[in-house]
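User: Could you write out the 3D structure of this protein bound to flavin mononucleotide? I've included everything you need below.
Assistant: Certainly. Input first, then the structure.
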Amino acid sequence: MDAIDLLLNRHSHGRLDLPGPNNDELDLILKAGLRAPDHAHLRPWRFVIYQGNGRQQLADLFERAAINNPELDEQAIAKAPTLPFRAPLVITVISKVLPHPKVPALEQHLSAGCSVMAMQQAALVLGYGGIWRSGVYATDPQVRSAFELGDSDEIVGFLYIGTAVGESRVRPMPQLDQYAEFIGE
Ligand SMILES: Cc1cc2nc3c(=O)[nH]c(=O)nc-3n(C[C@H](O)[C@H](O)[C@H](O)COP(=O)(O)O)c2cc1C
C-alpha cells in the first residue's frame, strides 16, 4: 500500500475476528508504535498486549470495574467482560508521564496517542483492521489502579486489531477549507 494512500484512506473496523496478527506481524505493529514522535526521547509509552486467553485478564478487570461503578447498570456489567473479546488482539496504550522541565504531560499523552495511530496504520498495511477505543474503562479508577498508573499517567486507548469482518468504510474526506487556514502563498 502506498504511504499517501494509507494516510488518506486510514479507517477503522469495529467488527474484528480471527486470525489476528502472528508474532512477526505483532512485532512490526509494536515497532511502528515505537516510532511515535517523542519530545526529549522520554519514551512515555507502555503497551500491554492481550491476545488469545490473555484477554480474559482484561475481561476480568473490566468486570470488576463495572461491578464497582455505581453509574453502570446490570446490562453494562454483563457486557463488560465481553469487550476484550471483540478482537483477537487488544493493545492497551498507556502514557507513562515522566517529569521534565520542557515536556509537559500533554506532549507525552500526544506521543502515546501517535503510537496508537501508527500501530493502527501498521495493522492496515499488514491486511488487518483495527479500532482505537477508550470508553468508561479507560478512566476507571479500578482499571487505573490495576495498571499502577501514576496521577499524571493515562490510558490513551485500547487498540483492537484483527481480521476485518464485513465491508470496510472510509469516511468521506472532510471539507479541507473548514479546518485549514492558509496564510501567504
Ligand atoms: C482517543 C479516541 C478514543 C476513541 N474511543 C472510541 C470508543 O470508545 N468507541 C468507538 O466506537 N470509537 C472510538 N473512537 C473513534 C474510532 O477510533 C474511529 O476513529 C471512529 O469510529 C471513526 O472511524 P474512522 O477511524 O474509520 O474514521 C475513538 C477515537 C479516539 C481518537
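Residues 105-125 form the longest helix (21 residues).
User: Perfect, thank you.
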